[in-house]
Write a structure and sequence with these properties.
Helix content is 28%, strand content 22%. It has a 4-stranded mixed beta sheet, with helices on one face. Helix 1 runs antiparallel to helix 2. One of its GO terms (molecular function) is transferase activity. Keywords: Transferase. It comes from Streptomyces nogalater.
Amino acid sequence: MDLWLVSCPEPGARPGAHPGAIPDELGVLDAAERKRAASSRRPADRALYVASHLALRTLLGACLRVPAREVVLVREPCPGCGGPHGRPAEPGTPPPLHFSLSHSHGLALIGVAAVPVGVDVQRVPGPGTVDVCAPSLHPAERAELDRLPPGARPGAFAQLWARKEAYLKGIGTGLSRPASADYLGADPRSRPPGWTVTDLPRADGHTAAVAVLGTVPPVPAVRRLPARFSSSHLID
């Protein structure tokens, strides 16, 4: 398993670039990705989406030994309803290549593995967000947060939510599965069986987690990629 962190550049940071401009490498993305990028209203969100998807394609292309623009991305059927919105996948790869992508407020996390994997990165929220979202959690998770002093709750909630979204991405349901259905709290022994869910080191005011099917060795270090890079950056 490999984990990569991408910090997004400021929109329009290149000399002569218009604020919110789409990078020249936009042609590497497929039609659906370009449409999604163009629909982003905030320049920062657009820049992060483009940077993270360019990174994902470059990483997958290096694994598959094909140019990034030739990587084909599809969605597996949803385990819950069978609709075309399950785990993202690269079809026809022997053996299977699994991956997951998450981005939040200027930072993106990518996981690539030989087994189903989910990753999530979350910016630590304010106390108000915790108060609004906590009622939707598993009862044991709510009890854990209630036992913490107020100042510790935002960080604990962000880490909990990162675990939860990583797991839900890993199983392919995403947030279509109720947040209260599974315990992803501080006690690893009580988390869903068959999956290894691991907290990652905090970075730039964000929490992060990875969920991997099965029992896995210690999670590797998270490597950083520049937002604008070539395949030469993947050579250790």
